[in-house]
Amino acid sequence: MIPTETIDTLERSWKALSELGAELTEAEWKTATDLPGWTVQDNLAHLVGIERMLQGLAPTEHRASPRDYVRNPIGESNEHFVDSMRALPGAEVLQQWNELVDLRVRTLREGDDTYFAREMLTPTGPGTLADFLSIRILDCWLHEQDMRRAVGRPGHLNGPAAEHTVDRLIRTIPIVVGKRAGTPDGGAVVIDITDGVSRHIVCEVQEGRAKIVASPTTARLATITLSTEAFVVLAAGRRTADQVAATVAGDGELGRRVLSQFNMMI
Asked: How many Å apart are CA 240 and CA 247, to the nearest integer?
């Protein structure tokens, strides 16, 4: 099946990155972001590298020097391409991005069922190209937000790409509430996300297993309220709980434990 909705959302996300990039000064391109060692420009260069790979274009032969923040082979591979573009002006990286986006959109629009069903390794394990593209929405939107926070240009906190990303991250909440935060059996934690992608999440623990339910059937122990941006920076591991604004009602200690374990991309 051709993932038309995924392609549409990806195209909108890519164009949002292009529009943001068109506003940036060279100083803003070189501004540090929440990702250790990476500037605004580095975030876009990373996306260029991944989309080149998916397009089947040749990888870089450049090799970056060791960095303290690179801790695994995937990070090392990413760093090689990012570092290969660090000496370029931001506007040139943006031009390469725009040209690549045009190519990627044409390729995806022309793909058939067989093309999208081909098996490949995705960031979450074995899957298909369609699965990988679904994850690309999350990655592209998160890096767009990394860039926006760094230069103080908030935006694009709602719409299909934002909703897709938030809903994918929500899948991990049972692990956070149950296993990591140790919510007691028979208790529920409610998480309300506001100011962008509004979501009301009820996660309860029954017989030692946490799960998301439509409404509590057990005691509501804590209610956490935070904005879409706060949820995203916590869930994506960009910042820690003491660096974001969130309110906790009910069991404050439990609520703080949940927030402290919110990184879903470890």
From this structure: 15
